[in-house]
Design brief:
The chain is an alpha/beta fold. Helices cover 34% and strands 15% of the residues.
Length: 123
Amino acid sequence: MSDTAEIKTNPMETHSALPPEETERLTREIIAGLKTVFDPEIPADIYELGLIYKVEIKDDRSVDVQMTLTTPNCPAAGELPTMVENAVASVPGVGVVDVKVVWEPPWSPERMSDEARLVLNMW
């Protein structure tokens, strides 16, 4: 992800009492897990698309995720949150995962990383 996109859309929050190296590892692996989840209609992962609004790692290793969809009528609305939950839960050391779909702020293509724009040929 480019520096500009990272500043604009970085969803990771790490206000945890976990040791910094453990928080960094969990953060890296959660992002890697999120990058394995693709909207079935778009050939870019949901992290690079900017669909992940917030990821919070808590002291007990539970993880709260706030995400959105490209539109409220997204055909994948029923499956994407479960795919996100499974991807995050697969990270060693992660406890309970809670995924919430939010609609504010509305998603727009400006949230996409440079990598997603390249994949989608949106330059």
